[in-house]
Amino acid sequence: MSAKTVLITGTSSGIGLATAVAAARSGCHVVATMRDTAKAGALLAAAEETGVTVDVRALDVTDPASVEACVAGLDRLDALVNNAGAGHIGTLEQESVKDVRAVMEVNFFGVLHVTKAALPLLRASKGRVVTVTSVGGVIGQPFNEAYCAAKFAVEGFMESLAPVLAAAGVSVSVVEPGAVASEFVSNVGFSDAVLEQAGSYAPALSAYLERTRGAFANAQTPQDVAAQMVELLTAERPAFRVLTSDAARAFAGAKLKDLDGSAVQTLTSAWVA
User: Fold this and answer.
1) Rounded to 5 degrees, what angle do the CA atoms 20, 154, 169 make?
2) Burial class (CB in 10 A: 0-12, 13-18, 19+), 127
3) Which pLDDT score, from 0 to 100, does residue 85 have?
């Protein structure tokens, strides 16, 4: 994939940072975006340590003007990696619909904003769209109602869009990690402090947090996920769905028998053939 341009959102930490460095190491020109470029220090340090360069640019996925400005600055684009997102802990009775909308803006509509803006360039290059979702986009999880709803929406949108874009020469893939050892956990706020306002939900929330700490204690590394992302970027025929660990495959496998998405894609592609 030498000399091809890849735009990655949410690269200040975690999977996005690791994918930006790994893609650059594979020979890509990486446009590494983040909402606040003042937070690029960790990415730039990792790139320097690895001996690669990345092109850091500002992009706020919730701001259409920011998205349009970033994409307009590209001469070509061969792949888009929708990685930016944010976790959320809460339950409906104790939060507002506005809170839920905010989660959807980042995790669902943010993906749509960037993908829509990038599609003319991707059609021109016969490129690909890779979107990081989650096993939470397959199985709903307690106290993750808004987050899982957004990820379910992304999964449904991309699964429906894939055969349409395939007819235009653009491939679509979704990547479903389980627990990943990154700043995601601290950014969500998995702490006992959230129990203080949990009221009658406190026992259930306490049990959930305890289970979650255990899951993240054995989490996959961002670098491992990034290696699989680069495989998707370079594969001749990328799979529609990639579950990134044995734990993710076991968890999602309770619902998904079609692990690589090929059966669904064969079915829905026939609808537009």
Assistant:
1) 70
2) buried
3) 95
In this structure, is the dihedral angle defined by the CA atoms of residues 239, 241, 244 and 250, taken in order, positive or negative?
A: negative
Query: Is 147 an active-site residue?
Result: yes
Strand 171-176 and strand 128-132: the pairing is parallel
The pLDDT tens digits for 8-52 are: 999 999 999 999 999 999 999 999 999 999 999 999 999 999 999
The full DSSP string for 132-171 is E--GGGTS--TTBHHHHHHHHHHHHHHHHHHHHHHTTT-E
User: What residues does 174 pair with on adjacent strands?
Assistant: 131, 241
Q: Which of 83, 86, 122, 147 is catalytic?
A: 147
Over residues 215-272, the pLDDT tens digits come to 777 789 999 999 999 999 999 999 999 999 999 998 898 888 888 888 888 877 888 7
- Cβ atoms within 10 A of the Cβ of 71, count? 23
* pTM of this prediction exceeds 0.85: yes
DSSP state of 254: T
Kindly tell me the burial class for residue 34, based on how many C-beta atoms sit within 10 Å of its own C-beta (0-12, 13-18, 19 or more): buried
Angle at 67 between CA 79 and CA 129, to 5 degrees: 20
How far apart (Å, rounded) are the C-alpha atoms in residues 23 and 230? 6
Over the chain, what is the mean pLDDT?
Answer: 92
Round to whole Å and give the CA distance between 109 and 134: 16
Please give the Cα distance from 204 to 40 (Å, whole number).
38
Token pair 């397959």 in the structure block, residue: 138
